[in-house]
Write a structure and sequence with these properties.
single chain, alpha/beta, six-stranded mixed sheet, three-stranded mixed sheet, 3 helices, 13 strands
Length: about 180
């Protein structure tokens, strides 16, 4: 837990991490975007600029990287649900998540480089999969996005009480 600084908030603390079977899982909803922002130039070393909260058509995507080849649009999703070593997303139905995937699909159809990056907020993860049981429509939208040319990537993170750092690619399954 971390003590909040805003006196008008509903609770006095933020949940930052939990321990599950000896594994530390980061629960901070803002952490995945912060981690990607720090890693963006390693993700695409050709990028000359990184913009967050990028508006593309009717969508607001997490990042846009300017590259010599054109725009590279990236949506980041934080993953905290783990079952038997597999990271699953979403942990609750997400119409907003489907909207983001549809925006990326439209952008890919127009020739833009597009990626959805699942930041697994623990390590190790044996695999990543869409959580079809919780939200089949999201799983279908993720498959459609992949088929439209959107790259689907997952990376797990080294998590300590003080930090979270992208660690290694995780196999994407279930598409």
């Amino acid at each position: 837990l971390e003590k909040g600084t805003n006196p008008n908030r509903k609770t006095a603390y933020d949940l930052i991490a939990v321990e599950k079977n000896g594994k530390l899982i980061n629960m901070d909803a803002q952490a995945p975007n912060k981690v990607f922002a720090e890693w963006a130039l390693q993700f695409d070393p050709t990028a000359t600029a990184v913009h967050s909260e990028y508006r593309f058509g009717q969508s607001r995507l997490d990042f846009c990287l300017e590259t010599p080849r054109g725009l590279h649009l990236v949506e980041v999703k934080g993953v905290t649900l783990e079952e038997d070593g597999t990271a699953l997303f979403p942990d609750a139905p997400t119409l907003r998540g489907i909207k983001h995937l549809e925006g990326l699909s439209r952008a890919a159809a127009q020739g833009f480089a597009c990626c959805v990056l699942f930041v697994v907020q623990f390590s190790p993860a044996a695999a990543f999969a869409p959580n079809r049981r919780t939200h089949p429509a999201f799983a279908d939208a993720l498959r459609a996005a992949r088929d439209a040319g959107v790259r689907v990537l997952a990376y797990d993170c080294a998590v300590t009480p003080e930090s979270m750092v992208l660690r290694a690619p995780v196999p994407v399954t279930g598409l």
